[in-house]
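yo

u said u wanted the structure for the complex thing, so here. seqs first:
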Amino acid sequence: MSESPATVARVFVLLSLMSFGGGNVAIPEIHRQAVVVHHWVTDRQFTDAFALSRSAPGPSTLFVMLIGTRAAGAVGAALAVAGMFLPGVVLMLGASAAVARWEGDRRVRRAIAALRPITIGMVLASAAVVGRSAVTDTLTILVAIATAATLFLTRAPVLAILAAVAAVGLLIG
Amino acid sequence: MSGYIRKVLVEDRRWLESEEFLRGLSLAQLVPGPNAVNLAVFIGYRVHGALGAVLSVCAVLSVPVIALAAVAAAWSAWGLLPAIAGSIRTLGAFGVGLMAATGLGMARAARLGAVDLVLAAVAFAAVAVVHWPVPIVLLALAFVSVCLRWLEPETGAKAGT
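structre next:
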């Protein structure tokens, strides 16, 4: 299965530009494009790729690299990652520069402050949405609560908790 | 991943104030693209301009790309690795706990007012309970919240602006 590199690049740039709110927002559409429209991967391969990206470090959206590999080899992987990440980077660079330049302005300061509660609500909502599929039995409920409580209430290092959780999963998962 | 960035940069190393982080994350959510990468652009730009932003994105993606490339090679060679199936489950739960702690930590640091708490609750409910699409909820609430803030009278400052 070898897709033209231009198609891979076009699909992922468009997916990137519609992911307002974070990479996870685009996942249903990535699924539609990769599985239903272009047949780059099967449904099962898509799910596996996403699960693998969650077990590796970094943003979960990086799993588009695996989809790109299936679509057009190494070139496809590079284009999928660049297409998914570059448009946001360019726009964010503009936004950061604009904020740095106009942050003395009262309206700009207030507008940014106005976004805070929504950001907080969205982060908690992502926890709930992902939790619905990832936290399903006693073990995962205990892990999620223990992780949240430890991080919220103590200064324990994240990597230590991550290592402990991975070990628990390997032993009794 | 944004949760981990906040924990290390704000709580452990104190490179950024919580307020500054929250501002960066708000922008990162509003601009299309993955939040962690957008956030890396914001923080890199703050520390060292455009060059800082580019370096920070490369740094934040390089290790994950290599790690995932290795996993991808194994994936095409042998199919899904059965050995890690168990830890995928607990790591998923870990991610949920981390996100919850991040949201709670930001709320604790931001000292939200009553209107803010209502907006945060509406954002949460619209996405987590009613399952409305995130982009629509985000843009609609951002509009409402910004309008409310702009209409609010200036406190403790001279009138007439």
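DSSP finds six helices and no strands in chain B. The mean pLDDT of chain B is 81.
cya
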